[in-house]
Structures are given as structure tokens and as C-alpha cells.
Write a structure and sequence with these properties.
- With 400 residues, the protein is α/β, with parallel strands linked by helices.
- Helix 5 (88-95) packs across helix 9 (251-259) and helix 11 runs antiparallel to helix 12.
- Helix content is 32%, strand content 18%.
- It folds into two domains: 3-86 and 233-391, Alkaline Phosphatase, subunit A, CATH 3.40.720; 91-228, no CATH class.
- It has helices spanning 3-9, 37-40, 44-51, 69-76, 88-95, 130-140, 193-213, 236-240, 251-259, 271-280, 294-300, 304-315, 318-322, 368-371, 384-391, and strands spanning 17-22, 54-59, 104-114, 120-122, 149-154, 159-165, 221-228, 244-247, 263-264, 287-292, 328-332, 349-354, 377-380.
- The strands form two sheets. Strands 9-8-10-1-11-12-2-13 form an eight-stranded mixed beta sheet, sandwiched between helices. Strands 3, 4, 5, 6 and 7 form a five-stranded antiparallel beta sheet that branches.
- It is built from 15 helices and 13 strands.
Length: 400
Amino acid sequence: MDLDLAAKLQQPAHSKIVLCVLDGLGGLARSETERSELEESDTPNLDRLTETSDVGLTMPVGVGITPGSGPGHLALFGYDPYRFDIGRGVLEAVGIDFELGPDDVAARGNFCTLDADGNISDRRAGRIASEKSAAIVERLQAIEIEGVELFIEPVREHRFVFVLRGSGLGEDVTTTDPQSEGVPPVFAKGTDSASERTASYVNEFVVKAAEMLADEPVANGLTLRGFATYPALPQMREIWGLRAAALAVYPMYRGLAKLAGMSALACPGGMEEQLSVAREYWDKFDYFFIHYKKTDAAGEDGDFAAKVRALEEFDKHVPSLAGLGADVLMIAGDHSTPASMAAHSWHPVPFLLNSPFTRGGSVQHLTESECLGGSLGIFPAVEALPLAMAHAGRLKKYGA
């Protein structure tokens, strides 16, 4: 829906909307069983909810396009991911409450493991503990780059935020992450003169950091991606009339929610704490975004069994999730992360919407194959929020 039209049609109501995103929800069948992670998992609570819900498959960005987590979530929040493309660095920085200025270019950093030949053997350095990562970041903070200010802040596990501050910096800088193992990190390049200047500072940092990390046993390398400056994003309160709250553990998703105008509520624990915080703030907000990361982490690690376990663990929380009493409950994914690919993919993602107006039907399991035959069919993820708003009685009739 056009955002200007949405602002005209939205109307106040006392209804509540909950969006629960299982990161990387979609998967693919493995050859041994010809069953996907969702098909393999035992999820009785999710099955019961599915039977009374409208289901389908969402297309996060477009046919054949593999989305990052940013575009995948933005679409579910009602933003056209083609129009609003926010770099990962900004999301990470905002997520840890780093105040970006107009002269800042931010990037997402990953520690990685390099072998004796300088090739990447683990893109995430074994997901090292946050405490260890923070100690390494502290060492890197001693690096100085003449001509710009440099900020490096820890995020979580192997992730950190990299920020350059200076006049005349561009954001169109290529990643240093080759997105695969068995090859070395690459040097950054700029696509215009301002971005070339940024890239030169980035590469200078990378060289100095490599010398400093050489003695690290696991996190002896790093990559940088998602270079970006602070964007102007229309706010959910202005567009949809929603007082929105986010319950996400990982800073990147908190950052994305904050850019959209949501209040990021503190909940450093898992789903149990997230649901507890939602109950605590239930009367103060109209819309709650709840994020579940474990499905994506297992998929990216190529661990089929771990993703099945993550789905089954989530299923234990479904009664409490439904018990919040939302007028509209959506369970969705920002993208597919099949364990067989150990990466994000372009495949459509299972989606469920439950409200007093849903019809239910023949679909009994929230799986890729059954959702294909659901009443919602395959539809753009950007249409999920308008659909929820309609079910919540928050959209006026259009036209005479």
C-alpha cells in the first residue's frame, strides 16, 4: 500500500496487533527424508493455531531476489524494500544506541577465522562469546586513521560496529566479505569519488587491524559490510497511527525497529522474557514486534537438526504468544534460510495470520508445501501490515 494512502485510511481503534518474526523461517527439503525443517519438526501448538488461521507464503522482496534481514523486516513493517534500502551498518549502530551524525558512515563488522594461507575458514569466528569479542574490539580501538575519526563498538558475539566520521565521505562502498569460505577477505572499493575516499580509510584500517589480530587464536581476521549513512524513514505512528514496540534481543533488529519509530523495549533474554515484557507494556502500545533469532542462526550454520530444535523450542512458547490476546497475530519470517544452503535464499516464506475474521481451512501445518495451498496464496510481504490493519479494524473504506 502507498504510504500516503495508508496515512489517509488509517483510523484509531482499541485493537492490538502482534507480529512474531521467526528469522530465516523458510527451508528446503533434505534429500534423506524429502522433508523441510518445518515438515520435520514436531510443533503441535503451532499446528492448532494454523488450523484456525489464514496462511500463505510471503515474497520478501521479489521473485528470485535473496533478501538481507533489513529488507525482509522492512517489508513486514509495511515499507517497500525497493524504496527504502537501509545499510546494515546503520541498523547495527542504532541498535546499540550509537548516535550517528550527518558525517558518519557505519558498517557492520564480523570477526572471522583465517587459515595459514589467509583464507576464511569460518566467517563468524565460531560465534565467539560476546565478552571475548568485546575484549578484541577494545584492542582495535587503539587504531588511528589520519583524516577521520574512527569508532569501533562491540555488538554481540562475533559482530561489531565500525564508524568513520569526517567530511566528504561516501557510503557506496563494496563489502570486504566475500560471503564464502576458502577465499581471503577482499579490499573495499568506492563507486564514486567520495566513496573511494571512504574505501581508502577502510582499507587502511583493515591492514592495521590484520597486524593487531594476527596473534588471536580464533578471531584473527575481520570483514566489513553494509556501509551506510543515516536514512530518513517515515515513522509508523505517522503512517499507520500505531504506537509500536519492539522486543528483540539482537541489536540489529532493535535498530531497524527504532528507525521505523518503534520503542525498543529492553529484553536481553529469550522468548520467555520477551513475552513477559509484552504483557508488562500491553496497555501502552498497539503493535508489538517480537523477534526470534535461533531459526536463522541454525540455518546459516547449515545445521538442519538444530533448526528443527529451534522450531520445536519456539512451539513451546506459542500458547503464551497467543495468550497475549492480540486481536491480530501474525507469525512470519523475514526470509528463508535453508540449512541445506547455509545461507539466506530467495524462496517464499510461510506466513500465518490469526484474527476473529480468519476462516481457517484445510491447512493443518505451517510448512512450505501446505502454505502454498493456503487461502492467502503467495503475496508480497509488504502487504502483510495492511492486511493486519484491516483485520484489526484500523483502515477506513477507500472511495465512495
